[in-house]
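Posting this for the archive.
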Amino acid sequence: MVTLYGIKNCDSVKKARKWLDAHDVDYRFHDFRSDGINAQQVDGWLAALGWETLVNKRSTTWKQLSETTRNAMDTKLAASVLLEQPTLIKRPLLDSGKGLSVGFKDSDYQQLFT
């Protein structure tokens, strides 16, 4: 089953959900805030995508991290920081069942689902 991860008030997540609905893609939405995440999920995402892809360096959450934390970021540190602050994960995170992707682009979704 397709799972879309994110937060419900994120504009990119809203666009992705609208696209999936319009194209009759059966999916489950998992809200980081209300549904939570666990270490196993984060470790799997980091292994598949790498912290550089998974961490949203343009987010307010990233900018609020200490400079020391930002400069020391690596996979191990990212795992703990993402568990504490899941809004740092680049959104939306799509698990298509065939692989993971982050962000929303109409053309990417078109290629995945048609």
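The first strand starts at residue 2 and ends at 6. The beta strands are 2-6, 27-31, 93-95, 100-102.
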